[in-house]
C-alpha cells in the first residue's frame, strides 16, 4: 500500500517529468502578506507571479504546500472531527503554470495522473465547471470522455476560487470522487452536497482575474493555472478508505493519542482522537514556523486550537498533559518531508507541555461552571452570553472551545450576548483608563486601536483574552 509519503512523491515526480520545477513548501505564516492569517493554499507563495509583478526562472512549478484553514475566508475548524474530509492542517499538492499552459493542458495532466498513475476508476469521477465556462466543459468531454451528466455546471462562488478578499482569482473546475450510495450526500450543486459521499479531491483554477478591495475584478494579462489536491483526500482514496482519518499517517497519530490516554482508538472517544490528531499537526507546524501562543493575532488562533485539543484530551480522562507526548509520533511520520518539524521538536514539546499544564489549572473549574450553568437553563436553550464570557474571561475558554463543547450536546451559545458582554468590558476598561490620565489622548488611542485592530485583517474575532493565560 502506498503511504502518504509515497503519494506525495508520485505527484511531484509526475509534474517534474512534465517540466515543472519542484519548489519547497512556503512557511505557514505568509511573508509580507497582511491580508492573510495563514497560508491556506499552494498559490499563496506564487501570488505575485500570477499578477506579473514578479518573474522567476521557471514558468511551471509543483509543490506540496503546508496549509492551515482555521480562520478567515477558508475556515474548517468546526468541521474537524466531524467530516471525513476536513483538517485544520493539511498538505495541498499543486501544479502551477505562470502564463504557460492553460485549461486544456491542465485538464489533460489531471486526468492522466488520476486515471493512469494513480489508477482511479474513471466511472467514479465527476467534475464541476463554472456555469459559463463552455470551454472547460468541452475539454472535459474531449479529454476524459465524460458524459454531460458528469460535468456539472455551478454558478456559485464554489467554482470561482479566491484566496481571500483580494488577489488573483478565477473560475475553476473541481474533480469529485463518488464513494457510493451507502454514504450520505449528494452531488455538487445539490441540496445535500455537504455530505461525504461525493468528495472533492482536486481543484484546478484558471487564474485570469484579479480582485481588488474596492470591488473591481479585472482580467489579468497572463492566463495561468493554479491547482490544489488534498494529499490526505487522494491518500484515502488510494488506500481504499473513505475517511482521511483512516489513512496511514492520520491513523498513526490517532493510535498515539489512544495510547497516551489509555483509550480505544475506535471507541466512544473516537471524535476526540480525531480532533487531537488534527490539532497536533496544526499546532506543531505553526510552532515550527515561528508562531507562539499569545493573546492576539496568529498566536491567539494557535492558542485556541491548542486549548480545544486539550479539552478533548481531558474528555478522554487524561489526568496529565497529553499533547506534547504525541510529538515524536508526528515527527516520525512527517519529519523527513518537513525537516523544520524535526528541528523544532524540543520547542514544540516544551510549548505544548507548558500550555497544557497552565490550561489544566482552570479547565476543570471551567467545565464545572459550564455544567452548573447548563443545569439552570431549560433543556436545549442556548448558553447565555454572560456565562460564555465568564468562561472566556476567567477560565481562559476561547468562545469556539465553549461552542465545541456544547455542540456535542446539540446546543449553542448566545453569541450576541457574548459580544455584548465583551463590549461592556471594553467600555469599562476604556472608562477607567481615560480616567487615569490624558483623557483626550487615551480616547484617540482607543479609536485608532479599534479601527486598525487585528480583528479586521484576521477576518474574525481575535480579541485579547484577559484572565488566565
Ligand atoms: P471543500 O469544499 O471540501 O471544503 P474546498 O473547495 O474548500 O474543499 P479548495 O479551496 O478548492 O477546497 O482547495 C483545494 C483542495 O484542497 C480541495 O480540493 C481538497 O482536496 C483540499 N482541501 C481543502 N480544504 C481541506 C481541508 N480542510 N482538509 C483537507 N483537505 C482540504
Ligand atoms: Mg472548504
Ligand atoms: Mg469545495
Ligand atoms: Mg474547491
From TrEMBL:
<keyword id="KW-0030">Aminoacyl-tRNA synthetase</keyword>
<keyword id="KW-0694">RNA-binding</keyword>
<dbReference type="GO" id="GO:0008270">
    <property type="term" value="F:zinc ion binding"/>
</dbReference>
<dbReference type="GO" id="GO:0002161">
    <property type="term" value="F:aminoacyl-tRNA deacylase activity"/>
</dbReference>
<feature type="domain" description="Alanyl-transfer RNA synthetases family profile">
    <location>
        <begin position="2"/>
        <end position="469"/>
    </location>
</feature>
<keyword id="KW-0648">Protein biosynthesis</keyword>
<comment type="similarity">
    <text>Belongs to the class-II aminoacyl-tRNA synthetase family.</text>
</comment>
<dbReference type="GO" id="GO:0000049">
    <property type="term" value="F:tRNA binding"/>
</dbReference>
<dbReference type="GO" id="GO:0006419">
    <property type="term" value="P:alanyl-tRNA aminoacylation"/>
</dbReference>
<protein>
    <recommendedName>
        <fullName>Alanine--tRNA ligase</fullName>
        <ecNumber>6.1.1.7</ecNumber>
    </recommendedName>
</protein>
<dbReference type="GO" id="GO:0005829">
    <property type="term" value="C:cytosol"/>
</dbReference>
<keyword id="KW-0963">Cytoplasm</keyword>
<keyword id="KW-0820">tRNA-binding</keyword>
<dbReference type="GO" id="GO:0045892">
    <property type="term" value="P:negative regulation of DNA-templated transcription"/>
</dbReference>
<dbReference type="GO" id="GO:0004813">
    <property type="term" value="F:alanine-tRNA ligase activity"/>
</dbReference>
<comment type="function">
    <text>Catalyzes the attachment of alanine to tRNA(Ala) in a two-step reaction: alanine is first activated by ATP to form Ala-AMP and then transferred to the acceptor end of tRNA(Ala). Also edits incorrectly charged Ser-tRNA(Ala) and Gly-tRNA(Ala) via its editing domain.</text>
</comment>
<keyword id="KW-0436">Ligase</keyword>
<keyword id="KW-0067">ATP-binding</keyword>
<keyword id="KW-0479">Metal-binding</keyword>
<dbReference type="GO" id="GO:0005524">
    <property type="term" value="F:ATP binding"/>
</dbReference>
<keyword id="KW-0862">Zinc</keyword>
<keyword id="KW-0547">Nucleotide-binding</keyword>
Amino acid at each position: 500500500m502506498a503511504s502518504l509519503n509515497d503519494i506525495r512523491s508520485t505527484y511531484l515526480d509526475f509534474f517534474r517529468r512534465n517540466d515543472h520545477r519542484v519548489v519547497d513548501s512556503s512557511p505557514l505564516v505568509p511573508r509580507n502578506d497582511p491580508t492573510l492569517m495563514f497560508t491556506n493554499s499552494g498559490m499563496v507563495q506564487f501570488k505575485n507571479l500570477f499578477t506579473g509583478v514578479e518573474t522567476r526562472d521557471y514558468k511551471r512549478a509543483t509543490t506540496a504546500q503546508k496549509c492551515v484553514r482555521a480562520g478567515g475566508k477558508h475556515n474548517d475548524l468546526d468541521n474537524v472531527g466531524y467530516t471525513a474530509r476536513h483538517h485544520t492542517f493539511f498538505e495541498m499538492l499543486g501544479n502551477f503554470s505562470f502564463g504557460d499552459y492553460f485549461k486544456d493542458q491542465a485538464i489533460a495532466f489531471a486526468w492522466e495522473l488520476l486515471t493512469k498513475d494513480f489508477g482511479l476508476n474513471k466511472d467514479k469521477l465527476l467534475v464541476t465547471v463554472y456555469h459559463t465556462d463552455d470551454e472547460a466543459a468541452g475539454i472535459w468531454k474531449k479529454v476524459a470522455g465524460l458524459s454531460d451528466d458528469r460535468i456539472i455546471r455551478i454558478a456559485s462562488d464554489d467554482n470561482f476560487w479566491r484566496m481571500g478578499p483580494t488577489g488573483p482569482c478565477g473560475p475553476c473546475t473541481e474533480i469529485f470522487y463518488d464513494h457510493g450510495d451507502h454514504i450520505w450526500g449528494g452531488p455538487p450543486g445539490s441540496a445535500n452536497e455537504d455530505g461525504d459521499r461525493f468528495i472533492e479531491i482536486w481543484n484546478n483554477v484558471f487564474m485570469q482575474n484579479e480582485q481588488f478591495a474596492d470591488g473591481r475584478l479585472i482580467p489579468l494579462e497572463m492566463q495561468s493555472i493554479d491547482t490544489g489536491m488534498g494529499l490526505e483526500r487522494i491518500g484515502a482514496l488510494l488506500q481504499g478508505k473513505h475517511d482521511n482519518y483512516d489513512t496511514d499517517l492520520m491513523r498513526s497519530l490517532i493510535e498515539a493519542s489512544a495510547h497516551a490516554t489509555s483509550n480505544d482508538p475506535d471507541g466512544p472517544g473516537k471524535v476526540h482522537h480525531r480532533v487531537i490528531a488534527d490539532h497536533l499537526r496544526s499546532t506543531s507546524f505553526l510552532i515550527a514556523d515561528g508562531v507562539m501562543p499569545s493573546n492576539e493575532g496568529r498566536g491567539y488562533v494557535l492558542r485556541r486550537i491548542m486549548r480545544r485539543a486539550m479539552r478533548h484530551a481531558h474528555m478522554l480522562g487524561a489526568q496529565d498533559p497529553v499533547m506534547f507526548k504525541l510529538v515524536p509520533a508526528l515527527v516520525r511520520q512527517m519529519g523527513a518531508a518537513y525537516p523544520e518539524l524535526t528541528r523544532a521538536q524540543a520547542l514544540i514539546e516544551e510549548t505544548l507541555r507548558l500550555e497544557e499544564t497552565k490550561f489544566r489549572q482552570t479547565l476543570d473549574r471551567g467545565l464545572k461552571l459550564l455544567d452548573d450553568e447548563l443545569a439552570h437553563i431549560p433543556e436545549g436553550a442556548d448558553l447565555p452570553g454572560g456565562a460564555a464570557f465568564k468562561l472566556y474571561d476567567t477560565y481562559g475558554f476561547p468562545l469556539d472551545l465553549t461552542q465545541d463543547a456544547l455542540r456535542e450536546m446539540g446546543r449553542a451559545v448566545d453569541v450576541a450576548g457574548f459580544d455584548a458582554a465583551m463590549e461592556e468590558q471594553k467600555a469599562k476598561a476604556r472608562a477607567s483608563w481615560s480616567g487615569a490620565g490624558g483623557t483626550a489622548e487615551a480616547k484617540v488611542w482607543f479609536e485608532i486601536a479599534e479601527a486598525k485592530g487585528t480583528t479586521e485583517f484576521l477576518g474574525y474575532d481575535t480579541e485579547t483574552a484577559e484572565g488566565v493565560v
